Amino acid sequence: MQTLEEFDQECPLSMMFCKRLSEEEFEEQAVSYTDQALRDLFRTMDRNPALCEKVIRRRKQDELEKSGFASLIKAKFFRAVEGQMNHCNEVNGEELRCRLDSLKDEMMKVQEYAQVAAPPAKQLAEKRLIVSAEVHSPKSCMVPPTVPAAPPLPPPPVPAST
């Protein structure tokens, strides 16, 4: 009978399924994978615009609700009566295509902004070090001064006897 210890002996792996990436390689891959995923999404949106119709109609509903009081009342009424997909936010083929193109443009702008605004991993690592140093600094371990206790409440008034 074999007795197994809590931890078995190490056995070296003969194959590796991944490799360690440098920060630059990681950032390049992140950008390229995101760009590829966006291109795939856009291609799917172009091939089958009906997949995005619900999103487009919801956005149109929001626009109608924000475009004035009368429009707000009308949009809310039809939404309450007919539900999310009502004739108030209905889109025809040409409008759907136009709104899809607008949505794709917005998505690309957000992606471009994120690439420009996102700090490199090195800056994030430095920021994490600074924050962790502040958290573990002796100043943060000091006990804050205590607030003096509130004075005791006065006794309740004694009812007058007659």
UniProtKB/TrEMBL annotation:
Which organism does this record belong to? Latimeria chalumnae
Which segments carry the region annotation Disordered? Answer: 140-162
Compositional bias (Pro residues): 145-162
* Name this protein carries in UniProt: Uncharacterized protein
